[in-house]
Write a structure and sequence with these properties.
Layout lengths: L4 H10 L9 H11 L6 E5 L5 H9 L3 E6 L2 H10 L9 E4 L15 E7 L8 H11 E12 L17 H8 L4 E7 L2 E7 L1
Parallel strand pairs: 1-2, 1-4, 2-3, 4-5
Antiparallel strand pairs: 5-7, 6-7
């Protein structure tokens, strides 16, 4: 991706392109791996329409912020949030790697999630560095990403997955790494 993330994603969200819905199997794994929020802060990177951020907030009890670089995605997330602003997630438009982290309401997060985002990070090392800066001690980083080679060769989206090298970069340097597979997806739970 040679253009900025915003320049790439904004036209897609604005044109109504939608992505894989959040599945019950994913939410069950997430709940089991990260536990109840009890009001602790959570950050959903690349929140899109806000489905995962709302799940973290309303079902698991986290105080959640959703961030996305596409203004149309944030507008959609806000429009789909039927709660009052005081009881729903906070929404921020920005690039998690290049923007000043002070745009976020909290300086550290008990949980950071990124669903179907890691594959698209142009500078994965910088992305992971920023996540580590934002994760509170003892926190958890939840990543859902497609794995290369899991789709049939005839599938036009067979190259959407991360490579073994990208998976190794993702999992290196954490004190604990748990993985769970869901069809073409892998769910990672990483702890500092």
């Amino acid at each position: 991706m040679t253009q900025s993330p915003r320049d790439y994603w904004e036209p897609l969200w604005a044109d109504g392109v939608r992505y894989r819905p959040l599945l019950r199997a994913e939410t069950a794994l997430l709940a089991a791996r990260i536990g109840p929020g009890n009001g602790r802060p959570a950050l959903d990177i690349g929140c899109g329409d806000g489905t995962l951020a709302r799940y973290l907030q309303h079902e698991l009890g986290y105080h959640t912020t959703g961030i996305d670089c596409a203004p149309s995605a944030i507008a959609l997330a806000e429009a789909r949030d039927t709660t009052t602003r005081s009881s729903g997630p906070a929404w921020r438009c920005g690039d998690i790697v290049t923007d000043d982290p002070s745009l976020l309401p909290d300086s550290a997060y008990a949980v950071v999630t990124c669903r179907l985002v890691y594959r698209w990070a142009a500078d994965k090392s910088a992305f992971l560095h920023r996540v580590r800066q934002l994760l509170a001690p003892g926190g958890r980083f939840w990543v859902v990403t497609e794995i290369a080679g899991r789709r049939p060769a005839s599938d036009p989206h067979q190259d959407l997955g991360i490579t073994p090298g990208e998976a190794e970069l993702l999992t290196t340097g954490w004190s604990a790494v748990h993985t769970d597979d869901l069809d073409v997806l892998r769910c990672y739970t990483l702890r500092p």
